[in-house]
Structures are given as C-alpha cells and as structure tokens.
Amino acid sequence: MEQNTRIGFIGLGIMGQPMARNLLEAGYALTVWNRSQPGIDALVKDGATEGASPKDVAERSNIVITIVGDAPDVEQVALGDDGIIEGAHDGLIHIDMTTQSPSVTRQIAERYAQAGIELIDAPVSGGERGAIDGTLSIMTGGKREVFERCQSVFDAMGKTIVYCGLSGSGQVVKLCNQVVVGLNNLAMSEALVLAAKAGVAPATMIEAVRAGAGSSWALQNLAPRILDGDFAPGFKIAHQQKDLRLALELADQSHTPLPGTALVHQLFSALEADGMSEEGTQALVKALEKLAGVSLRE
Amino acid sequence: MEQNTRIGFIGLGIMGQPMARNLLEAGYALTVWNRSQPGIDALVKDGATEGASPKDVAERSNIVITIVGDAPDVEQVALGDDGIIEGAHDGLIHIDMTTQSPSVTRQIAERYAQAGIELIDAPVSGGERGAIDGTLSIMTGGKREVFERCQSVFDAMGKTIVYCGLSGSGQVVKLCNQVVVGLNNLAMSEALVLAAKAGVAPATMIEAVRAGAGSSWALQNLAPRILDGDFAPGFKIAHQQKDLRLALELADQSHTPLPGTALVHQLFSALEADGMSEEGTQALVKALEKLAGVSLRE
Q: In this complex, do B137 and A204 lie within 8 Å of one another by their Cβ atoms?
C-alpha cells in the first residue's frame, strides 16, 4: 500500500487511540469513528476526519481498521445497520484488530466475500505501552496477498508482524498467546506463595529463578510489581477473562482439553467474585494468597 | 577459601562428574567417592584421589560436596555407617548440592551441629550443559558467613549464585524453580496442542508468541525440540517428578495449595504410566496430545 492509502479507524479506546495516532504520524489520511465522542474528538484534534458511521468510514477508505470490545461488537460494526458492509466498494479491506472469536471471524469473512470485501484478522499483543511505542506484536490471518498489501500499515503500528494462515488464524494464535500468558502467570504466582509460606523472601526466590530455566516475561515484568504492591492494570483481569473465555470456547469447539487454562480461568473468576475485575492480571497471585492464608506484602 | 582448600566430592553422576572436573581445573585438590566405580575412575584419571568412604573423604577434606539422588541418599552419606559425620573435624563444611527435602536438610544440619560440621544446601539449576560449562545457577541456604567462605568454590561451578537464607532455603528456592519450570512447560504444551487442533502450524504460533508477553525459557528452548521430534532428556521426567514430589510435599507441610503444580505432576504421571520416565520433560506435550487425539509431528 502506498502512503496515500486512505485509512478508516473504528474503536478509539486505550489501544485504538495511540494506534490511530501512529498511522497519522506515518502520513496516512485517517477517517475515524467511535461509539462515544471523546475518542473521536481526540483524534480529530490530531488531524483525523470524523466519519458519520462505519458505513461512511468504509466509503471514504481503502482500508478500515477496527479494534472494539468483542465478537458481537465486531459483528455490529461490520454487518449491522450502517455497517462496513454497506460501504463496500472495489478493493476495500477490513483489518479487524479486536481479539475475538476465530469462528465469528470466518463467518464475517464469508459474508464479506459476497460483497467483495477482504477481511484480515490481526489481533495484537503488547498492551497500551506497545500501542503507544508502535512495538505491538500483530498476529494475522486471511489471504496472504491481501496481508502483504497491508504490510506497511502494520509496520506503522507494530514490530513483530507474523502471518499465521487463512482467515481466523491470527485469532487462534492470539488465543494461544493468552493460554501461555495465563499459565506463566500461574507459575509465577504459585512459586511466590510457596516461597512466602516456606519462609524465603519472595524477592530472593525471583532473583534466583528468573536467571535460568524458569525465566519468563511474567517473572521479569509482573513479579517485581507484585512485590511493590502495584496491581494497576497493564492488562486488566476483565479483559484477560474475555480472552480466556474465547480460548476455552475454541478449545471446546475443537475438542482440545486445556486443564491448566481452565484452572487459570477459575482462579481469575474467584478474583472477579471479590470485585477485582479492573485490577491488572498480576493480581492472580491474590487468589493463591487467599487460598494459602498468606500475604506477600506484610 | 584459598585455592589450597582440599575438597571432597561424593556423587559422580551426569551432574557430579563435570562439576568435579571444573573444581580440578580451578586448581583444587579433590578426593572423590561414588557408589559405583566408573565415576571414580573417570575423575582419578583426571587427577583426583580416590577416597575409601564418605567418612574417609571427610577426614581428608575441608569441604565435602555431595550431589546424589534424593533425601535418603543424602542421609545415608551424611549420617549412615562410614558417613561424613564420622569423619568430622574442626572446620569441616558439607555442601549438599542434591535437590532434596528442605526439612531433611534442616534435620541433618541439627545432627551436624552437635558434631561441629556446618551444612550448606546448594541445589543447582542449568542441567548437564550448565554443569559442563560451569554456568549453573546455585541456590544456597545455611549460615551466611559459612556460605561466604565457600564463594570461590561455587564460582568454579556456577554463574548465578544466590544466598537464599537459613538452612533449607536453597532447597525451597530450587523447588519454587521447579514449580515455575513445570507450569511454564504446561503453558507451552497447551498452546501447541490448541494451535494444532485449531489448524495453525505450531511453529508459526511459537514464532509469534515467544516475541512478547508469553516469552519463556520453555518456549525458546523446549518448543523447537518438540517440533523436531527430539525428546532426548536435557532433564528427564523421572527427575522432574522427584522434584515435583518434593515441592508438593513442602506445599503440604506448609499448607500451600498449588493446584497448577499438582496438575503438572498428574500429567507427568500419565506419561510415566506410558513408560516415558526416561524422556525429557518436553514430552509433557505428549500427555495433552493423547488427551486431544492429535499429534504435532504428523
């Protein structure tokens, strides 16, 4: 795609705003739409044009990017009243960067095929920090030649961009990522609580374990925040639970027993019962602290 | 300790042999003992002296190092007939590098106190490769001043040497390490099987996931071996199970629920039932492949 590609951007939340801003900075003309007005105003101030609806955004753009809440939100924006499908025109590509269901992704792609719209699924990993810095990991699915036409658009938002296969494959890989992230988090949490209960300073345990075969992003990045009592969300429990629900739904559909992932989901459920949905995922350790009757921060 | 420190080394297996060799290369005089003769012969050929028994080794040494099978083996060598305790003399230090029970460690330390022997627990992580290269992680417990007297001996065998606290603390941290290693392995295994069942090439999934918040030593080092069909042990399932048994025993003694670790132990148990005790721990994925009715290598 050339830099004169006109891009539409729908979904201007914590992730969408900085991603859209990186596209503006890369020189793309941007038409934006959002369910609420403040997100739109922020981007218009930075040079974007306000669209009237997803349909209007599609009509004005070669590529429409969405990053909204979940599968039903994508379906609404894509196929609902005044949806993207109503703005179909020759060469239109929809890149959906929402983490959502692989099967819903494929259903939308099938509807789009009749209207001549190409769909690329492209969920991201890396959080708000990665969105701001333009260093997101982007996992993509759809036709390879369509993906390749979007390469420079992805380059403006991310660093590690992996083509994973046919429609829905980006979503599958993103859900695999959440399986790994969830269980690496449990690994760290069980070790922290065991150290504390067995009389060893958790910080000492982390120092020794993260140097070797136990090393992980979680131990490097989340464990120090836990010991500082910092449970502010990089990635909040409510969103982690949405993604684990999607992973377990995919597992169910494909007859794949995931006993560890199911356990992580249940432990987060206990935290949600205690009103912690808005805390960061590092609060998983609190579920184990409660079970073991210990606090790491006393 | 000075380089003229006389060291005794008991337990010349896969780990012990290269560790003892690194001590010889660092210039230490070494008296060795092993339950079977071939290990002794190999080290004597390299310049070590053969001891007649653990007692004899202790009498000839300032520091005796053990790295044997499990807690009962350490008890036998330390407190049994012709054991280290019978060779007690002024200033003798026993460094036990076996991964074994923190509570048995403390019991031996108490018996030793009456005989004037100091015990340091110092289990290692890093496998045969780390033992050969002298890059082991060493987690130590015992009196800090005794640990400090042994620093140059540890430096000859390892790279990351962490003092964890009073007697048994090195063992506690090693068991925490095994909790993390086991669950990071499960994280990788569940993601691999989910990708395969959902129609995405596992190699592609790994490429995308290991770059971000899902990264771990397991994904970097074990996943490629799984995809190559290489299940030779770096660290074998029988030893992983021994360590998980110790971790769950410690958890039980300290009333620490470890639901994820218990699950990993059960899945490895299924592999042992299938005769895979001698395979590497990366074979954990085979338990999930069997449950899901899929093979990653077809």
A: no
Helices (H) and strands (E) in chain A, counts: 15, 9
Classify domain A173-292 by CATH number: 1.10.1040.10
The ipTM assigned to this model is 0.96
Distance separating alpha carbons of residues B50 and B48, to the nearest angstrom:
7
Find which of A179, A261, A264, A282 to mutate to test the B interface (most B CBs within 10 Å of its CB).
A179
Residues of A with a known catalytic role: 174
Q: Does domain B6-167 have CATH number 3.40.50.720?
A: yes
Residues B161-192: tens digit of each pLDDT? 999 999 999 999 999 999 999 999 999 999 99
Q: How many CB atoms lie within 10 A of CB B128?
A: 15
Q: Are A185 and A218 in contact (CB under 8 A)?
A: yes
Q: Among B207, B181, B189, B174, which Cα is nearest to B70's? A: B174
Query: Is the Cβ pair B162, A208 closer than 8 Å?
Result: yes
Tokens 């003992």: give the residue. Answer: B33
| Model confidence, pTM | 0.95
Q: Which residues of B touch A200 (CB under 8 A)?
A: 164-165, 169, 172-173, 176
Closest C-alpha to B283, from B231, B219, B209 = B231
B162 bridge partner residues: B139
Q: How many Å lie between the alpha carbon of A253 and the closest alpha carbon of chain B?
A: 9
Angle at which helix A37-45 crosses helix A16-25, to 10 degrees, equals: 20
Residues 6 or more apart whose CB falls under 8 angstroms from that of A72 comprise: none
Smallest CA–CA distance from B287 into chain A, residue: A257
Q: What is the pLDDT of residues A163-192, one digit of tens each?
A: 999 999 999 999 999 999 999 999 999 999
Give me A216's structure tokens: 């992980």
Please report, for chain A, the start and end positions of each structural domain, with discontinuous segments joined by +.
Answer: 6-167, 173-292
| Structure tokens given for B131 | 């033992």
Q: Is B174 a known active-site residue?
A: yes
**Beta pairing partners, B230:** none
Chain B environment of A236 (Cβ under 8 Å): none
User: Residue type for A62, please?
Assistant: N
Closest A-chain CA to B256: A292
Distance from CA of A121 to the nearest CA of B (A): 14
